[in-house]
Amino acid sequence: MGNLLIKFFLPVLFIILSGCTCGDLAREYPESFVLEVTNGIDIERKDASVFVNITMIKEKHPDFNPGAFVIMGDGKELSSQMANIAIGDKGEEIVFLADFSPKETKKLTVRYAKQGEKNREYLKRTQGKPSIKSGGKWAGNKYEGGTFKDTNYLKAPVEHTDHSEFIRFEGPGWESDKVGYRLYLDWRNGTDIFGKKVTDSILQNVGQDGFESYHEMSPWGMDILKVGDAFGIGAVGIWENGKVERVSKTDGLICEILADGPVHSLLRIKYLGWKTNSGKYDLTSRLSITAGSRLTKHNIIVDKDIDNLCTGIVKNQESVILKSEEKKTVGLIWPRKEIKVL
């Protein structure tokens, strides 16, 4: 199986699981253990996203219940959630946010109840959604009438193409409190950016007041990337005969929301029967974002060996390069390979 992992993030955190003799346990979560988390770089990290695999936790604490847990650190409850992160949807992980000083090691307490489910409410700082029309009808490649409704599963109709006005902002969207993105779920298969002026969630309102209203400045921000005939940012294609070929000709397109939580959101796009000059492929694209970060992780799986996948970014002639001498961290962490169980 060929696969391509596109990553744009800093070195990871090192996590150590150990037993715990914590006192003063919450009544609702009588069991506990400690996560020892080390910031491996000499940079302060705010809203660092930490991922801990459930399988590894249960090797040390087999009665751990992912349906009822809280994470405590720095004298407060940390925002957390469960998410199905692993490729192939075979691995569940805890995802939570924490702040770290340079090279700091923290001991965080995980409390849990052995049985039942207890939902915790945290400030929602990410989301992912496609929104489609219902109550109208197709007239050729245009959808007339109807109203938009959010969904967690979308199979693109055969009539759907660019500017069909069937999918709000033309495809699925995902965002953090820092930035938003959208993917054209049609022959263009490009990725666009929503520049945000606010930290609130905005995707639920984008495009509700006019199909392309997001091209004009509004209180929340606007579409800021002029994609044109380019890939946009981070979309996938194939390099053949000295040029780029998009994921344009397929037997079907499916979009699913795998996670839509306060800390982490994840979309899966399935391109069934992608036709290229060199063959036909099934391509799966997974797009995820975490709170406090402007970055998207794009993971790609292809059902056959392929060595000429490519990606790109818009090259605007008017762009100005901005540089900062200050060391900064971007916040997106993916430390699964560096987790050690003691």
Describe this entry's structure for a reader.
This protein has about 350 residues and is mainly β. About 0% of the residues lie in helices and about 45% in strands. The protein is built from 1 helix and 27 strands. Strands 1-25-24-23-22-15 form a 6-stranded antiparallel sheet, with no helix packed on it. It has a 6-stranded mixed sheet with strand order 6-5-9-3-2-27, covered by helices on one side. A hairpin with a 2-residue loop joins β23 and β24. The longest helix is centred in the N-terminal third of the chain and has 7 residues, at about 55-60. The model is unreliable at about 1-10 and about 330-335 (pLDDT under 50).
Which terms would index this structure?
six-stranded antiparallel β-sheet; globular; six-stranded mixed β-sheet; 342 residues; 1 helix; mainly beta
